[in-house]
Amino acid sequence: MTDIYEEIEALKAREEAAILAHYYQDGEIQELADFTGDSLKLARAATTVDQPTIVLCGVHFMAETAKMLNPAKRVLLPDLQAGCSLAESCPAPALARFQEQLRAEGRRFQTVTYINSSAAVKALSDWVVTSGNAQQVIARVPSEFEILFVPDRHLGAYLEEVTGRTMILWNGSCMVHEVFSVLDLLALKRRLPHARTIAHPECPANIREHSDFVGGTEAMLRYVASFDQPQDFLVATEANMLWQLEHKAPWHRYHAVPGIACACNKCPHMARNTLEKLRDCLVHGRPEIAWRPEFDRAREVVERSLLH
Ligand code: SF4
User: Fold this and answer.
1) Residue 110 above 80 pLDDT?
2) Pocket probe mutation, ligand 1, options 81, 113, 266, 270, max atoms within 8 Å of Cβ
3) Ligand 1: which of 77, 152, 175 to mutate, judged by most atoms within 8 Å of the beta carbon?
């Protein structure tokens, strides 16, 4: 009997498809992917794909980004309902109203938007950043402008600290990174006193301040790989990242920092994509991301910010 992995490989060849998977997808999906990465790496990878079809195993805004950078390609998302609590915390009409209000007050500002946002929000922005390139992009915002940072207030607060720029912060957050338990982190540190703690900048300040290293997922991979000797790492980001860490730097030991309500922190939106849905989207050629008018302006902003 053909197993589902063989089925997906055969369909991928038949449909001339490339699979791009985010680090927060289940390990079994990452294993099948042609490219794995954080949002920035996936956005860049999407521009280099030769195949006419991209299957984006991630959440909706990532598939939108792949489509806007590749209008001619068919972009499939295994589950169209794979959203993102952070992106949803900043609806485009609410952002447009807030920008209007700031302009009416005479404030001169540029809008810097985390990639975890809808295309409609990106279209209202001056810059789009990822956790991997935010500092470099913010350095390009002329100092005479205030910065309106959307939608993640924790990442925004972290960027205020490291760049020294004062920002107007949108009050959004990621449901996964917001719920790490500082008490459990401190208990883990007592149990493993030599362990180093690595945290994603979407985590709140009370987790970041107990961390040895704060950075996006690509930066985390580089950080752990810089230690030759086996170490213990306490990891405060989405729990599937442990698969990628174990894959790229298998000589270390990794421990997921627990959330307040559960033993680990898995993103329920990413988890909507399964092997079965990946297979089915290749069989049926849907769900497909359709081009929408706001993609034109969003594409300009993404290309200027991420690709140059
Ligand atoms: S981990 Fe958080 S930011 Fe990432 S997709 Fe899930 S809800 Fe969105």
Assistant:
1) yes
2) 270
3) 175
Q: What is the chain written as a DSSP string? A: ---HHHHHHHHHHHTTEEEEEETTS-HHHHHH-SEEE-HHHHHHHHTT--SSEEEEES-HHHHHHHHHH-TTSEEE-S-TT---HHHHTS-HHHHHHHHHHHHHTT--EEEEEESSS-HHHHHT-SEEE-TTTHHHHHTTS-TTSEEEEESBHHHHHHHHHHH---EEEP-B--TTGGGB-HHHHHHHHHHSTTPEEEE-TTS-HHHHTT-SEE--HHHHHHHHHT--S--EEEEES-TTHHHHHHHH-TTSEEEEPPBSSSSS---TTGGG--HHHHHHHHHH--SBPPP-TTHHHHHHHHHHHH--
Q: Name the residue with the closest Cα to ligand 1, atom 1.
A: 267
Residue 2 is predicted with a pLDDT of 65
pLDDT tens digit string along 168-187? 999 999 999 988 889 989 99
User: Looking at ligand 1, which residue's alpha carbon is closest to its atom 2?
Assistant: 174
Ligand 1: which of 22, 39, 84 to mutate, judged by most atoms within 8 Å of the beta carbon?
Answer: 84
Average pLDDT, stretch 38-63?
95
What is the rounded average pLDDT of the residues 145-173? 97
Which domains occur in the chain, in start order?
4-81+270-292 (3.40.50.10800), 87-169 (3.40.50.10800), 177-256 (3.40.50.10800)
Cα of 124 from ligand 1 centre, angstroms? 21
* pLDDT tens digits for range 256-266: 998 776 656 88
Asked if residue 271 has pLDDT above 90, the reply is yes
